[in-house]
Amino acid sequence: VQFVESGGGLVQAGGSLRLSCTASGFTFRNYRMSWYRQAPGKERESVASISDAGRSTNYAESVKGRFTISRDNAKNTVYLQMNSLKPDDTAVYYCKVPGAFGAWGQGTQVTVSS
Asked: Is there a contact between 69 and 51 (Cβ–Cβ < 8 Å)?
């Protein structure tokens, strides 16, 4: 089981980024997927999740209305579209199947400057 995140970078406040995460080693279409983030000195937190078929999504209050999670089961990939970025969104972003399933990937760094 492997998760490979990409798409992070440095962006000014108010800007946008689209993160991608490609999964392998399991039947991707059968599992809910989540995005998480960990800011310096803080615990890792869940940002968004999406059901196996993509019909149901959930978001942390801090990102509702700004972030959109989606998935392409044909490509074993989950996305996180991030708009109206704020400096508080600065963190390393990870994707994973929720719970004790597989190991964390290397993540992708998102830095939002003010």
From this structure: no
